[in-house]
């Protein structure tokens, strides 16, 4: 196991390219099992543990996966021989539930381990299962596994009681090969959902309305292999913007889609950053200033992303003034608060709210990463802190950030990965 050693207070300065979006690539990898002819090639794939885990999962189902050195992944599902997602893989990555819809739709059979809870909350999947059951799947849960079967899924009207990103994606994939029309209401509008819909449409699916509350899917008989480049990662984009803002630095992010991080840009402007954008770049200049505190309330896209909450908590911990951070998506997504407190942050928790009183400085300390975005926030806190911060359990960061310490090093950070 490795740890990161960060010597803080070096302003982040320079240019960085963001990688492809983890949460777009994972459903696309799963959707690749649905093609009847040809191969699927996914480009702009980030180099991440979650990608490797998904590839292992598909591999053990018999999918032939090849990767080149640029991380273009080619998937041949004609060699598939089982429809089973075992506990030992699913437990390390909840997104494995994304194989359920594709397997059911294409093969009429799937056995997938229940994902269980995780550090950020209980995260059940009953909305995925209820929706698939409404489409005619027979679903049985026993011994920690979901066993699902059907002759053919039947198009249906599905209204999600609460917005769910992977639930919407599972349904999009499943309904693409269902008989007849599916209408998904209260659908997630995240850019990754839209990217998946574009990907499926190129494969031959008929999906309209992705990116709005109501998505209509007309089932088709077959899908074909395609090549597709995933969209850039908006959470990585936002994390690098905060890295510059928290250190009083200046950054230009390349290969980004500014409209996908509009609310993050708005909040960072409120914090005092000067930000300009072009079609594919975002430049932020903090001019050496201390940020001002900003209030945050998380919600489904286009509201403020829960996946950026921990990073903004780090920013507020050294900002001038007080702020309130309200987490509305996951019930336990404040694990970073305790660790930041060990660095001198003044944060009080009250149910799903954190009240942050900005300190003039944080002081480096050994801290422990508890989940992916919490890890990112501790690195950010370490970049701004006086002295040395050691972030342990960084396997979490490798699940979702492509070469983060190399990219930060290029930007002037003093950061080193060492074995523990
Ligand atoms: N929920 C239920 N029942 C369900 C499904 C969801 O109660 O059947 C609840 C969840 O517990 C949560 C809320 O609904 O309280 C929304 O969860 P959602 O289903 O939207 O989350 P997800 O699809 O499991 C994806 C991302 C997460 C991101 C959330 C919210 C992927 C692979 N994961 O998770 O990404 O935080 O949407 O935007 O797309 C991350 O990248 O660090 C990450 C955790």
Gross geometry: elongated
Helical content stands at 25-40%
Number of helices: 14
Bound molecules: uridine-diphosphate-2(N-acetylglucosaminyl) butyric acid
Widest sheet, order of strands: 24-25-1-26
Q: Kindly, what is the distance between the CA atoms of the first and last residues, rounded to a whole number of angstroms?
A: 6 Å
Proportion of strand residues:
25-35%
Going by helix content, strand content and strand pairing, the class is alpha/beta
Low-confidence stretches: none
The number of strands is: 26
Major β-sheet profile = 4 strands, mixed
Mean pLDDT: 96
Q: Supply Rg.
A: 21 Å
Notes on the protein architecture:
- The chain is α/β, with parallel strands linked by helices and 420 residues long.
- The chain contains 14 helices and 26 strands.
- The strands form 7 sheets. Strands 24-25-1-26 form a 4-stranded mixed beta sheet, covered by helices on one side. Strands 2-17-19-18 form a 4-stranded mixed beta sheet, with helices on one face. The chain has a 4-stranded mixed beta sheet with strand order 5-6-4-16, covered by helices on one side.
- Helix 8 packs parallel to helix 10 (309-317).
- The protein starts with a strand and ends with a strand.
- Bound molecules: uridine-diphosphate-2(N-acetylglucosaminyl) butyric acid (EPU).
- Residues 23, 26, 94-95, 121, 123-128, 162, 164-167, 306-307, 329-330, 372-373, 400 line the site of uridine-diphosphate-2(N-acetylglucosaminyl) butyric acid.
């Amino acid at each position: 196991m490795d740890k990161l050693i960060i010597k803080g207070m070096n302003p982040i300065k320079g240019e960085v390219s963001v990688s492809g979006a983890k949460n777009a690539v994972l459903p696309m990898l799963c959707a690749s099992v649905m093609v009847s002819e040809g191969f699927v090639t996914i480009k702009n794939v980030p180099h991440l543990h979650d990608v490797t885990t998904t590839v292992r999962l598909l591999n053990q189902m018999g999918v032939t996966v090849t990767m080149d050195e640029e991380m273009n992944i080619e998937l041949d599902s004609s060699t598939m021989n089982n429809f089973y997602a075992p506990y030992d893989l699913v437990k390390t990555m909840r997104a494995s539930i994304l194989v359920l819809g594709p397997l059911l739709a294409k093969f009429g059979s799937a056995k997938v381990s229940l994902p269980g809870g995780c550090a950020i909350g209980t995260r059940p999947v009953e909305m995925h299962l209820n929706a698939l059951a409404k489409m005619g799947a027979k679903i049985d849960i026993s011994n920690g596994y979901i066993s699902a079967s059907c002759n053919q899924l039947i198009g249906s009207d599905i209204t999600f009681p609460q917005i769910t990103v992977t639930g919407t994606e599972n349904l999009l994939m499943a309904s693409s090969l269902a008989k007849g029309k599916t209408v998904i209401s209260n659908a997630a509008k995240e850019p990754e959902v839209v990217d998946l819909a574009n990907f499926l449409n190129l494969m031959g699916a008929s999906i309209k309305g992705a990116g709005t509350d109501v998505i209509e899917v007309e089932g088709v008989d077959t899908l074909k292999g395609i090549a597709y480049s995933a969209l850039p990662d908006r959470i990585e984009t936002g994390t690098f913007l905060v890295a510059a803002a928290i250190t009083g630095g200046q950054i230009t992010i390349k290969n980004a889609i500014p409209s996908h991080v509009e609310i993050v840009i708005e909040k960072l402007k409120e914090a005092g950053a000067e930000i300009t954008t072009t079609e594919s770049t975002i430049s932020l200049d903090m001019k050496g200033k201390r940020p001002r505190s900003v209030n945050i309330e998380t919600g489904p896209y286009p509201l403020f992303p829960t996946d950026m909450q921990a990073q903004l908590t780090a920013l507020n911990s050294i900002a001038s003034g007080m702020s309130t951070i309200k987490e509305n998506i996951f019930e336990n997504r404040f694990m970073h608060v305790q660790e930041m407190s060990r660095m001198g942050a003044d944060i009080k928790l009250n149910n799903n709210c954190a009240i942050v009183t900005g300190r003039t400085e944080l002081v480096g300390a050994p801290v422990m990463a508890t989940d992916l975005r919490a890890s990112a926030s501790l690195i950010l806190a370490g970049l701004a802190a006086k002295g040395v911060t050691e972030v342990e359990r960084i396997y979490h960061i490798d699940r979702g950030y492509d070469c983060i310490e190399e990219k930060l090093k290029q930007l002037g950070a003093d950061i080193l990965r060492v074995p523990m």
